[in-house]
């Protein structure tokens, strides 16, 4: 075999390996869908829990039979009050799933809205600001109160029983019994007003997303507009996460739930709130938080006792419309740990959630339902609820993701500076997350460090990195990092490349064994290649009639003729002694006869 032929064979072999890997991934997804359909069919949708029914409907909505069965079973579980089990999370999941298959869920949305409650976990403040000293009138409950704001921004006194001086006299604290009170403000100079909130006994303050301004003698109005969703008589944080998501997807205002969800996120990390908040707000800071929580660039697990399959699916659901290595790495990890039967964790809920989050299939109409109307077919825009105003949300159009809404206007991305980011120069590294913006694809939400300023951890080895916490397959080292992070390094483990080396060795051994078994056939094959085997006798024109080569065609210069020596007479060799005859098999006789014919044909 020539070098050229060897290169071709190796190239074909490499392409086959690549195709096998790609086919393995695709087969894994198909196997998972097949496994899920079989499990749901074997148990019957009617015997699944509400969570299993909702996630199964989201994943299998593309299959008309499964679609019809799971939707019917889910509707059968709805109570007379239009809720599911009277629970927030179950009702929110049912609303998401049914809305995804174009079923009217208005009654269940109304039930969620009846569970609104003013959270007692937050403190609220009124801020009034002006570029110069001013006198302001605050009106509420039919009474006017007058205050003065000095050039140092300090307020001189309280404004009635609802508004007391607070935080060094810069703000007015709103009494908890007055959270639903309207405050009308008017000043004799140009001014702005806004609300500020914090978790009780917390040290972090958040500014409301709405700021109002007015000229001198004009008016602004402020009112605390913050709610949670209650389970029983108390706020339920996880239920509010899912409920706010379901209500935002169905066109309701989600802003009234954000203060509660944002302020208490640190106390509820086990629910991976950054995934929900990123979809609800579209803020890059929640995207950064979410990607930083990924363990070993593979999976998510908010707490050590959490189900990493569920948490990873939740993160993938939030990142569905974002192209990035974090989601790709998580999908590859899921395929790497996928059991041979196809279902993850032998769980209907987890498998359905993973498939809908990572590899969703668009729904089809079933059971006489109207044809699904896709948003982008009508030149509208599918986007996250946080990127579309409630007034621009179109409820009768469908998007590929259950967590996207159809928006009348195209979302406008902010510039890098609007996102409080910076663009790192060549040779610099971003210490935080990198996001896209309207003016660049690499907007750094941290700081830019020169290569000479890199941390001790990163400078020691390219395999070491600074993270908030190390993953299960990583260990922390003593090298320093910035911002209180820890230096993480991979634990000693066998290199994955050895797996492929072993596979290649096995394939080579198989090829060698096959070559030994079929060595006679290979001899014939090599002989044919060497002699350029053709059927029939050789053409007489292929041999020159004299000792010189034939004349070249016209226009081609004649080559210098070779020097040919006359044949020399050689002494007749002595006849060797005849070896004793050996028994030859039919196979050997066949080979000899084939070789003899080939020699005659090649003359």
Describe this structure in words.
By secondary structure, the protein is α+β, with helices and mostly antiparallel strands. Among the domains are: 122-225, no CATH class; 375-407; 428-490, no CATH class; 495-529. It has helices at 3-43, 50-60, 64-76, 88-100, 106-114, 237-249, 258-263, 273-281, 284-292, 308-318, 325-336, 348-358, 456-460, 497-517, 519-530, 586-602, and strands spanning 116-117, 122-129, 134-140, 143-149, 163-166, 171-174, 183-187, 191-199, 205-214, 220-222, 228-231, 234-235, 381-383, 393-394, 405-407, 428-430, 434-435, 443-444, 448-450, 465-467, 474-477, 486-490. The strands form seven sheets. It has a five-stranded antiparallel sheet with strand order 5-6-2-8-9. A four-stranded antiparallel sheet has the order 4-3-7-10, with no helix packed on it. The longest helix is centred in the N-terminal third of the chain and has 41 residues, at 3-43. It is elongated, with a radius of gyration of 37 Å.
């Amino acid at each position: 075999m020539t070098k050229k032929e060897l290169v071709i064979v190796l190239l074909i072999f490499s392409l086959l390996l690549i195709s096998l890997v790609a086919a393995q991934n695709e087969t894994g997804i198909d196997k998972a869908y097949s496994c899920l359909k079989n499990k749901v069919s074997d148990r019957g949708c009617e015997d699944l829990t509400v969570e299993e029914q909702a996630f199964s409907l989201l994943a299998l909505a593309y299959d008309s039979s499964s679609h019809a069965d799971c939707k019917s079973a889910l509707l059968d579980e709805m109570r007379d009050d239009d809720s599911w089990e009277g629970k927030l999370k179950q009702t929110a999941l049912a609303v998401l799933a049914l809305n995804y298959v174009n079923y009217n869920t208005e009654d269940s949305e109304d039930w969620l809205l009846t569970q609104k409650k003013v959270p007692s976990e937050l403190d609220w403040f009124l801020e009034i600001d002006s570029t110069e000293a001013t006198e302001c009138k605050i009106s509420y409950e039919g009474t006017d109160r007058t205050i003065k704001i000095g050039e140092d921004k300090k307020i001189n006194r309280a404004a009635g029983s609802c508004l007391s001086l607070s935080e060094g006299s810069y703000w007015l604290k709103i009494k908890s019994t007055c959270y639903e009170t309207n405050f009308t403000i008017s000043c004799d100079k140009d001014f702005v007003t806004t609300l500020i909130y914090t978790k009780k006994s917390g040290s972090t303050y958040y500014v409301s997303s709405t700021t109002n301004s007015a000229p001198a003698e004009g008016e602004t109005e402020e009112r605390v507009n913050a709610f949670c969703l209650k389970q029983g008589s108390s706020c339920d944080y996880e239920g509010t996460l899912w409920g706010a998501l379901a209500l935002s997807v169905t066109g309701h205002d989600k802003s009234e739930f954000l203060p509660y969800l944002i302020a208490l996120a640190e106390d509820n990390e086990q629910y991976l709130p950054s995934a929900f908040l990123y979809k609800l707000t579209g803020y890059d800071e929640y995207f950064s938080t979410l990607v930083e929580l990924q363990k070993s660039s593979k999976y998510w697990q908010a707490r050590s006792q959490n189900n990493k399959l569920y948490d990873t699916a939740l993160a993938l659901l939030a990142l569905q419309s974002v192209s990035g290595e974090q989601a790709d790495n998580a999908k590859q990890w899921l395929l790497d740990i996928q059991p041979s039967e196809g279902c993850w964790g032998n769980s209907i809920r987890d498998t359905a959630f993973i498939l809908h989050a990572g590899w969703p299939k668009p729904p089809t109409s079933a059971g006489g339902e109207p044809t699904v109307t896709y948003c982008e077919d009508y030149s509208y825009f599918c986007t996250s609820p946080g990127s579309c105003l409630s007034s621009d949300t179109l409820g009768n159009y469908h998007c590929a993701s259950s967590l996207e809404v159809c928006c009348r206007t195209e979302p406008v991305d902010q510039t890098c500076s609007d996102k409080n980011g910076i663009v790192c120069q060549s040779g610099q590294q971003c210490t935080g997350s990198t996001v896209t913006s309207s003016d660049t694809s690499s907007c750094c939400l941290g700081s830019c460090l020169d290569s000479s300023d890199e941390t001790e951890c990163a400078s020691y080895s390219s395999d070491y990195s600074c993270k908030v916490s190390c993953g299960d397959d990583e260990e922390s080292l003593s090298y320093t990092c910035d911002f209180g992070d820890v230096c993480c390094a991979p634990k000693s483990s066998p290199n994955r490349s050895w797996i492929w080396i072993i596979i290649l060795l096995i394939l080579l051994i198989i090829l060698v064994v096959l070559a030994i078994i079929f060595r006679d056939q290979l001899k014939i094959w090599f002989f044919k290649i060497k002699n350029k085997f053709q059927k029939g006798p050789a053409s007489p024109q292929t041999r020159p009639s004299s000792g010189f080569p034939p004349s070249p065609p016209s226009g081609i210069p004649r080559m210098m003729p070779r020097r040919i020596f006359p044949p020399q007479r050689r002494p007749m060799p002595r006849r060797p002694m005849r070896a004793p005859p050996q028994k030859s098999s039919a196979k050997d006789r066949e080979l000899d006869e084939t070789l003899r014919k080939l020699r005659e044909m090649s003359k």
